[in-house]
Every structure is written in structure tokens, then in C-alpha cells.
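WARN retry 2 of 3 for item q-0093 after timeout on previous attempt; input resubmitted unchanged.
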Amino acid sequence: MPSIFNNQNRLFILLAAALILVLGLGRSVRAQEGGDADAEVDRQAYFDRVAADIESGPAGSQTPVVGTIPCENGFAGIYPCENVDLVAFMPLATIGGGSGNDIWGWTDPLDGKEYALMGRSSGTAFIDISDPENPVYLGNLPTHNSNSSWRDIKVYNNFAYIVCDVQCSGHGMQVFDLTKLRNVLTPPVTFIEDAHFSGFSHAHNIVINEATGYAYRVGGETSQCSGGLYFIDLQSPLVPVSAGCFSSDGYTHDAQCVSYTGPDADYQGAEICFAYNEDTLTIVNVTNKNAPALITKKGYAGFGYTHQGWITADQNYLLLDDELDEANFGHKTRTRVWDISNLDNPALIGFFDADFNSIDHNQYVLGDYVYQSNYSSGLQILDLSNIAAGSLSRSAYFDTFPSNNFANFNGSWSNYPFFESGVVIVSDINSGMFILKPNLEPAPPAAFTRSAPTDGAVDVSLDPLLSWGTSAGAESYEYCIDATDDGDCTGWVDNGADTSVNLAGLIAGATYFWQTRAVNPQGTTYANGSETAYWTFTTVEVVLDMQIYLPVVIKE
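OK item q-0093 returned
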């Protein structure tokens, strides 16, 4: 891929990466109020390590995919998968070039059209995915100043807000009017920002609570608010206004800020930020922007770099990802589960370890699932139905980086699962943007056919064996046999999990009509695809074995 570093910087980055591997980031990378030189050095080493992996990582596929490739037998084309179809793929070269980073989505309230907003090292790509099998690259919004591996995007009130980190001091926040995407007649075009906010120099992420219209800059420059939560009023979308900050727990890498409706009565109606502060989960009440208050901060054993997380819809639980624990401690990709029903005292109740060593990065909860972008293992979708017990399980995945599942910073950066259409857009650092369609809803049993007696068979035994094929997903089978050709059978018999049954005592020379069906809680599937597609067979005519005795006349 095109390099975003010069040769001199590349040497420095590789040396720093080697140093960080030796140090293992074993000590806290916390930056307290007023700044901490050691923490700043550790944090820069962490960023250098990420940049080195991105720079040296293999280029992904640059072959576009248009039109759905279903996930079959564990693959969708070249990509390992389970229960996720590949709808389309747009290589980086076709959406503005550079390396990939963040991704977000926008749905036009006028017509319901869906759009992808994908960050790249040199800018932000805007893509019309209203026909997801044939996405259209509408154009690029160039970076405000410098290229960088880090860009972050969020949407509020039909405007995109874009920040940049590490290599882009002075970038501030770009504001872009998304309604301009409605009228791009000859794509791709080069867009210009509609406004620029210079209240901060650079930021690692931008967080928005759409319910209140407040944005929160996190990370980036530590000289302002120690890199903590920096409040921005977006009530006038083109004229953002600084509204205060929370700095007493130092640097915040990422956060989620919500209007609280959860079970803790003490905070009902408050605006709460769940912040990921490098070595703690930090919970802050930001209702009063002039006097934000720390609720609590919680550390945990085995932290490497407390990175990001998301809460469940009922606000009872929180999922946390740590970006360096896999590399530092050698365990599998780990998702930590917290009970946050008491905001003053959140409790770590369990964790889920995947089957591979990739680094977890960004995750978002939708319904009963969490959608995780875990770098080299791509998109992972976990089932939350047993989260109260601190337990998760994998339901689906799509590996955007099939080269390996190592603990490095290549592969999927982020995803956006919130479109009404059900498609999920995924950004990949090395290759581009994927449009995917998970198949998560439990399905009725799969199609299957009958075997014997064949349709129209004659001279069938009076004690025949009925048999049929296996239906994937079936929990049981039922069969019905009738002597009347009326297309209706009321005498269905449960046959359990068996795919055959011996009948007995049929009438000789009679014609019978039979059908079978597969059953599970999601539905019923009839053999040969139709409820009324009965097969017939006729039993054998019985020939009586009669011996005839004739009188014998003996002549004398």
C-alpha cells in the first residue's frame, strides 16, 4: 500500500516498535493532570508500534467484489466465514487510496438511503450503499492538514464530525454536511469541509451522544484537559462550541456517553460517560458540564491497554476490550464482561476468550449481539444471551484479513452494524471496505427429500420402511400416511430424531399417500418443498397359497 511515512520516520518507528516489544508496556500508561513524562513516552511507543505494523503489513486483496458471495463451507470467496455473506468489497485504491481506519454510517432521513463514511490515512471516503451489491464511491473529503493512520468519524443531525490523531497536530475537527451526498451527479468528487472547529489541536476519537447533542473529544493532545473528556456543544451543527472538560482521571482513549436509563436509580436521567482510560474503566457523570463528577474508576488484573467498550441496550452490562493484553500476556483474544447495574461499583463478572490470538479493537452492541472488529481475525459476532452469567459465545464471523490471526495491528479497524437494512460495513486497514450480511436469526430446518418407498412404487410390502434424508437444523421429524387423496393429513406422528420408520399391518392392494416434515422452534419444513407434495405407493396384492385336493377314484 502507499506509504504514509518517510524513510527517516520508518526507521524510528521500527526501532520504537522493537523497544515496546521488550518493555511489553508492563507499567501503566496513565497520564495524570499536569502530564506524566513516562506515560507520554509509553503512549508514544504504543502508537509507534501500531504505525509500524500498519506500515509493514501485507497489502490485502485489491480485487473488487460486486454481488453477493454466500458463505458456504466456511468461505465466501477467499475469506473464512461463518453465517456472514460477502455482499460487496471496495479496495482502498477504488475509494481514495492510503490505509484504512475508522468507519461509520449515515441513513438519509428523506429517503432511507444508506451511506458509508470510511476514514483513510489521507481523508474520508463517502460511499452510497443503498444498493449494497453495487456500492458507489461518491468522493473524498481530504484531511484538514496532514495524513495519519488515525482518523475517527461520528454523525449527528445529518453532519459528520471528523478528527485525526498522532501525525496531524492542528487538524481540529472537520464538519461535513452529509445532505450534499444526495446530489453527486458525476462521482467521484473532491468535497470540502463545511466548517472547522479549532478548539483543540488533535484528537484520538470523537464521541457523540445524539440524545443530548454533545460531542466529547477524547485522547490526542494532553496539554488540553490532560487528553480527557472535552465537551463540545453541537446544537448549532456548523458552529460547535466548547463546553468544558473532565480531566481529573487523565487521558481517555475512547468512551461511550449515553442518557442513562439503566437500573441504578441514583443516576436515572443523568448523562453518563463510560471512559476507557488506558488502565481503568472510568465512569463520569457529565450532566452538569460545568461540574462533571467522577462516579468511579475500576482497574482489573492483566490489563495491557484499556481501549474501548460498549454497553448493552438495557445498560446492565458493559463489554471491554484491552488492546495489548493478548500481545503482552500471550492469551487468546479476550472480551471482559462487566455488571454495571451499580454505577458506583461495577463488577467484572467474566470474560470470553476466542480461539485465536488477534488483538481486539472496536466493538458495538446491537440487540443480542456484539459486533467486534478484532484486527487480523476480522469481524467477530458474539451472542449475548447468557451475558448475565458473564458468558459469551460466537455466532458468526468474517475474516477480512485471511493472511493470519496474529496479535498484530493489521486487518479490521472497525465496523458499523446499525443500518436498518441489516448490512454491516467493515473497514480493513490493509485492503478496503467490506459490505457484509450476517445471518443471525435462527432458521427453520433446511430442505430435504424422501427416499423410500419412491413416489408411485408398487408391490410394496405390507410392512414397509419409510425413509427420508436429514434436514440441517431439525430437532425432530414427523410423518403422516393416509389412504385418502385429499391433500390433507391430520394424523401426524412424532418420529423423534429418526429418519426412518417401519410400518406394519397395511392392507393388501391398497394405495397410500405419505409425507414427512422436519421441525424446530423456528418452523416446519416439508419434504420435497411442499406441504401437499404427497408421495404414493401401492401395496402388494396377496396371492393365497391354496392347495386343492381332488378325490381319487380307484377302479377295481
